[in-house]
Fold this protein.
Amino acid sequence: MTADYIPSGNRNQVAVEIEDVYKSFGRLEVLQGVSMTVREAEVACLIGPSGSGKSTLLRCVNHLEKIDAGRISVHGKLVGYHERGGRLHEMHDRDVARQRRTIGMVFQRFNLFPHKTALENVIEAPTQVLGMSREAAIAEAREHLEMVGLSDKAGSYPTQLSGGQQQRVAIARALAMRPALMLFDEPTSALDPELVGDVLAVMRQLAEAGMTMIVVTHEMGFARDVGDTVAFMDGGVIVEYGDARRVLAEPEHPRTQAFLAKVR
Amino acid sequence: MSENNPAAGADEAPAAAESRPAAIRAVPVRRPGRWISAAVLLVFAAMFVNMLLFNKNFGWDLVRKWLFWHTIVHGVWITLQLTFFAMVIGIVGGVLLAVMRLSTNPVSGSAAWAYTWFFRGTPVLVQLLFWNNIAALVGSDIGFGIPFGPQFFHLDTNSTITRFSAAVLALGLNEAAYMSEIVRAGILSVDEGQTEAAASLGMRRAKITRRIVLPQAMRVIIPPTGNETISMLKTSSLASVIGVVELTDASESAIHLYFKAIPFYVVASLWYLFFTTILSIGQFYIERYYARGSSRNLPPTPFQKLMRTNLSFRRRPAFTAAREVPR
């Protein structure tokens, strides 16, 4: 773990500002007025039953989903739109892509590129998007693979790796872009129980190094130990939000209490 | 372990394995149906070989004599060129049409759909005749310039659209319609998560298509494309109808010269078979290349298979089939 990942901003600076966001898929209203603030170096965990909108909210942060109303900004810049003369202008594909460079994302199903080896997966974006030389990218990729404990798997194709190893390669791939914010969409939900620990350990390491993270998770242990804040979502709204240990230990809202009683 | 235990003697197996029951040696199920069907097929095969060898009408001596006759060889060369250029147009056009069809722009989507509708909906032979008579449609020269505006240069239709280029255009443009469906199926077979992962890394649409989606779609695209190429090699014989002297036409003219039909059809068939075989072998290796990363074990090459067989017919070789790993 190098100091590269520690964002230069101080801890109280706002990293992600989500203001009154609405999103529906056809007639299904998935987000119904969600507001949330994530500060630099903070680990914010989103928990809640499936279908509560937590993954959708996460995907809105890097504009994989377009929001219908409200606004999201990352590091003070509006996501997906330019604001000029009091009006919103849709961003060009090029600018959306540029904005995503600083936001890493890790998916539930890993989504590694199966036709590329672990190393090729990691160097793909630095060489293709940032224009880094292959040699420099490889040197850096080896560091990232070492950080996730997979330096010996550089030449392996994704199908030759276990789920936990694939997910750690996916984390290395996201880190290769030197993001200032990492989004994790249920990173351990598709893993066999004995492989969950390795992935969580890498995430914990990242959090300790000061990475700003938003984590959608069902791992209450991780949320309690690593999370700074926890937002409990249900029915498209944040039902309860606050200090991670407080929300998980003494939930105030009855719905939070009921949910936590079930998952425990 | 057995080193310290002289009692184990020649038996090197550890103690745990000694209690293992003997391997099953059961009497196999009798399958008389297999023997009967095999016998019937063998009789047919013997009849066929007998006909090949002893039916004088094949004229094997003539076949041997005319197989490399210059007119035939030139016809082979034209057939290969037709196949090559038509497939280039077909594949490039197919990729273009598929990307258009899948784009978010409704106009380009509809245009691609209409193209496929027309070129797949009319017989390739009719299209071939159409292109051969294109001058009757567009006049004797073709102008290039601003649509509905001034034109900058002209081409003489009859010297530009020769019989050969008419055949290439007809076969290629027709092929593009079929290839577009193949490419589209390939692109749709790639998981959407791939596009999302690439997008989340800051890659742009064109680059995602080129670097992430198409290479994975290839696994689905290659086998039917191989079939199309093999099919094109044979369909190119239709060009003989508009007077392109390719393999079939060359054989036909030889028949008119020598009044011997069967030997020249055999000559043509042997050439077609030779090249379809070459193409099938090529297809196998290309498929193998694009299968990397998608299955744990690549299918063995015929040579590797031969090495593993041990020439033993009594027992099937322990052979692990390459299994698709679900993504």
